Amino acid sequence: IIRSWDKTLPTDNNLFSARRSQKEFLNKNRPDTAKEPIRFLKGVSFGEAAGGKPCGIVDGEGNAEYLTAVIRELLRSTEFVDGLT
Length: 85
What we know:
Layout: H1 18-24, E1 43-46, E2 56-59, E3 64-66
Antiparallel strand pairs: 1-2, 2-3
């Protein structure tokens, strides 16, 4: 058993203790925070609107579709250049 303070590397022949699992893995049953970036290669969806449709979707190519959006600071194009010309 690999306990929460152990430096033992995981193998097919050992397992994480419950406390080590709570410390390292995201929890789907209570609010949690990822301390590192998470990549979703095929996209991600958020919430559920009437009829079971997702409230927001970002596909694997970065295209986003939201039911509503609030932009608090800045909305700009990657191709826009400041200036007179």
